[in-house]
Design brief:
Elements lengths: L4 H4 L12 H13 L5 E6 L5 H11 L15 H8 L5 E5 L6 H10 L10 E6 L6 H12 L5 E7 L7 H4 L3 E5 L4 H15 L5 H11 L3 H11 L7 H8 L4 H13 L2 H13 L4 H20 L14 H8 L4 H18 L5 H13 L9 H13 L9 H6 L41 E2 L3 H7 L6 H10 E6 L2 E6 L2 H8 L3 H13 L5 E5 L10 H12 L8
Parallel strand pairs: 1-4, 1-5, 2-3, 3-4, 8-9
Antiparallel strand pairs: 6-7, 7-8
Helix pairs in contact: 5-6, 8-9, 9-10, 9-11, 10-11, 12-13, 13-17, 14-15, 14-16, 16-17, 18-21, 21-22
Organism: Agathobaculum butyriciproducens
Enzyme class: transferase
InterPro entries: AAA+_ATPase, DNA_pol3_clamp-load_cplx_C, DNA_pol_III_gamma-3, DNA_pol_III_sug/sutau_N, DNA_Rep/Repair_Clamp_Loader, HLD_clamp_pol_III_gamma_tau, P-loop_NTPase
C-alpha cells in the first residue's frame, strides 16, 4: 500500500531531523547524561518536526542500546514503539480529547508502572486545544509525575497555553526550516524515490513550503504524480506562479502595460491558479526587490532562493523603492478585499489597474513621487501621461485654471451655439500649430532656488514649455505637477522669469497634456457683425 512521502521519510533519529540542531543536540546531551526533565513542551509552526522529535525522544528514553543519545530502532522496545504494539507510549490528540474527563482518565493511567518498557510516555499533540478545566486537571500531575512517567506536549499556538503549564515544562522552540535545507532534503528524497526532480523545482517547492518540511514533502508528492518534476510541473500541480511568471507580471506593471498584465492574470485564472495566491507571491517578490534595491550589503542570503540577485537588480532598474512600497500597499489592500469579494477575478484585475496607473496619492510623500519619476527617467522607462479628460471621467479634480478660458472642445455638448455648424456638429477646424519654446531650458535654470524645490523638480521632470498663439503653455504630464505649477507664488515667479528671457511680457498658461487648445472659427458671430455694420450699427468687439 502506498505511503505518503512525509510519513515514509519521517526522521527516525535526531541526526535525521532537518534544521533543528539546536534542539536535537540538547536532547541527545540530556539523554547521554541522564538529566532528563519530567515534562517537555515543543512549540513552533506546523511541519517543523515537533511530533517527530517527540516520537524519537519516546523511543530514546526506552531504547535498550542507544547510540550517542539516538534510539537504535533495532531493539524490541524501539520496534514495538514504531509499530504501535507497546501501549506504554501513548499519543493523544488534544483537539478531540480536550475535556476534563479525558485528562482525568490520563491522570489515572499515570499511576500504573509500564508493562513493556522503562518509562510511560504521554505525547499530547495540539495541547493548546485543551479546555481550562482540562488544563487545571493536568496541573498537579504535570508538576510532580511519578518517576516512570514522561510528558511531551506539542503546540503550534503557544500563546493559548496557560502560564501555569509553561512554568512546569522544559520548553523548546522549533524554528522554520530554511529554504536551502528543505531544497536539499527534497532532492535526497526524490533520489531515494526515483523521482526526476530539478533543482529549480526543489527551490520553488521550498519557497512555497514556508519553512514546513511536511508541507514540502506533500507538495512533492502531488507534483510527482505526473512523473518528472520541474518548475512547470510544480506550478501546474499546485496552482501557483512560477519564477519567470512573477518577473513577467512585475515587468508589465513596471512599464504600465495594463493590457499585458490583465492578459497574464487571465492566463493564470484559466489555468486554475488562485489569483489571491498570485498576488501573495508578488508580495514576496516585492519584498526581495526592496532588499536588493535599498540594501548596501550583500543580501543574497536573505532573499528567496527562487530569484537571483541579478534578476532582481534588472527588475529594479527603473523602479524606485517608493514605487515598490506603493505596490505592496495596493496589493495588501486588494488581498483584504478579495477575502470577501463576490468576484475575486474582478478584484484582481482592478488591482492590476491601480498598479499600472500609480498616482500621486499612492505615494507616502511628494519626495517619493519625485524619486519614482527620477528613477524612470534615469533608466529610460516611459512615464505614462494621463489625459485630463480621462482624469475627469475617473472623478478626479478638474485641471487648474489658466489665464484665459480655452474655447470649448469639438463635440462638447455644453459648447455654445456659435461654436457649432448648422447641422449641430462642432466646427471642424484644425488644431493650432504647437512649437517648443526655445527658452524653456534657460527658464528651468532661472527658476532654481526661486520656487519651491518640489514644484521645480516636478516641472523639470514632468512638464515642457510650448508656444501657442504667442503664449507660453506649460504642458504637465500629471495632475500633481499642474497643481504645483499653477499655485501662487510659483506661477508669478514663472511669469516674471519668462518675461526676462523673452525680452517682453509673455502670457503663461498651465495645462495637463491632452487638453490641446483648439481654435474654432466663429462663423455665426462673424456674419452677425457684418450685418450690423451694413446697417450702420456700432459694434464694440472685446
Amino acid at each position: 500500500m502506498y505511503q505518503a512521502l512525509y510519513r515514509k521519510w519521517r526522521p527516525q533519529t535526531f541526526a535525521d531531523v532537518i534544521g533543528q540542531q539546536h534542539i536535537t543536540d540538547t536532547l541527545r546531551a540530556q539523554l547521554q547524561s541522564g538529566r532528563l526533565s519530567h515534562a517537555y513542551l515543543f512549540t513552533g509552526t506546523r511541519g517543523t518536526g515537533k511530533t517527530t522529535c517527540a516520537k524519537i525522544l519516546a523511543r530514546a528514553v526506552n531504547c535498550e542500546h542507544p547510540v550517542n543519545g539516538d534510539p537504535c530502532n533495532e531493539c524490541a522496545a524501539c520496534r514495538g514503539i514504531l509499530d504501535g504494539s507497546v501501549l506504554d507510549v501513548t499519543e493523544i490528540d488534544a483537539a478531540s480529547n480536550n475535556g476534563v474527563d479525558n485528562i482525568r482518565d490520563l491522570r489515572d493511567e499515570t499511576r500504573y508502572t509500564p508493562a513493556q518498557v522503562r518509562k510511560r510516555v504521554f505525547i499530547i499533540d495540539e495541547v493548546h486545544m485543551l479546555s481550562i478545566g482540562a488544563f487545571n486537571a493536568l496541573l498537579k500531575t504535570l508538576e510532580e509525575p511519578p518517576e516512570h512517567v514522561l510528558f511531551i506536549l506539542a503546540t503550534t499556538e503557544l500563546h493559548k497555553v496557560p502560564a501555569t503549564i509553561l512554568s512546569r515544562c522544559q520548553r523548546f522552540d522549533f524554528r522554520r526550516i530554511g529554504a536551502e535545507d528543505i531544497s536539499r532534503r527534497l532532492l535526497d528524497v526524490a533520489a531515494g524515490e526515483g523521482i526526476a526532480l530539478t533543482e529549480g523545482a526543489a527551490r520553488l517547492i521550498a519557497r512555497l513550503a514556508d519553512g514546513a518540511m511536511r508541507d514540502a514533502l506533500s507538495m512533492l508528492d502531488r507534483a510527482a504524480a505526473a512523473g518528472a518534476v520541474d518548475e512547470k510541473t510544480v506550478t501546474a500541480a499546485l496552482g501557483v506562479m512560477g519564477q519567470d511568471d512573477g518577473i513577467r507580471l512585475a515587468e508589465h506593471l513596471k512599464t504600465g502595460d495594463l493590457a499585458a498584465a490583465v492578459g497574464l492574470l487571465d492566463e493564470y485564472y484559466n489555468a486554475g491558479r488562485d489569483l489571491a495566491s498570485v498576488y501573495d507571491q508578488m508580495l514576496g517578490l516585492i519584498r526581495d526587490a526592496l532588499l536588493v534595491k535599498t540594501s548596501k550589503t550583500d543580501v543574497s542570503a536573505l532573499i528567496s532562493p527562487a530569484y537571483s540577485v541579478k534578476t532582481l537588480q534588472a527588475l529594479c532598474d527603473g523602479l524606485a523603492s517608493s514605487t515598490l512600497i506603493a505596490w505592496s500597499r495596493i496589493i495588501s489592500d486588494s488581498l483584504d478585499h478579495m477575502r470577501t469579494a463576490a468576484n475575486r477575478r474582478v478584484e484582481a484585475e482592478l488591482c492590476a489597474v491601480r498598479l499600472c496607473s500609480l498616482g500621486a496619492d499612492n505615494y507616502d510623500t511628494l519626495g517619493g513621487r519625485v524619486e519614482a519619476l527620477e528613477e524612470k527617467l534615469k533608466n529610460g522607462v516611459p512615464v505614462q501621461m494621463v489625459p485630463a479628460a480621462a482624469a475627469q471621467q475617473a472623478g478626479d479634480v478638474p485641471p487648474p485654471p489658466s489665464d484665459d478660458d480655452a474655447p470649448p472642445l469639438p463635440g462638447d455638448e455644453d459648447a455654445p451655439d456659435w461654436a457649432r455648424e448648422e447641422d449641430g456638429t462642432a466646427a471642424d477646424t484644425p488644431k493650432q500649430e504647437v512649437t517648443l519654446w526655445s527658452q524653456w531650458q534657460p527658464l528651468l535654470e532661472a527658476l532654481t532656488g526661486k520656487i519651491n524645490i518640489g514644484a521645480h523638480t516636478n516641472i523639470k521632470l514632468s512638464a515642457k514649455g510650448v508656444l501657442e498663439d504667442n503664449a507660453l503653455v506649460i504642458l504637465c504630464e500629471d495632475k500633481m505637477t499642474a497643481i504645483l505649477a499653477a499655485k501662487e507664488p510659483t506661477i508669478s515667479v514663472i511669469r516674471e522669469q519668462a518675461a526676462k528671457l523673452n525680452g517682453a511680457p509673455i502670457k503663461v498658461k498651465v495645462r495637463e497634456a491632452g487638453e490641446e487648445l483648439v481654435v474654432k472659427k466663429n462663423i455665426a458671430v462673424d456674419e452677425l457683425i457684418d450685418r450690423a455694420k451694413s446697417m450702420d450699427i456700432q459694434v464694440k468687439q472685446l
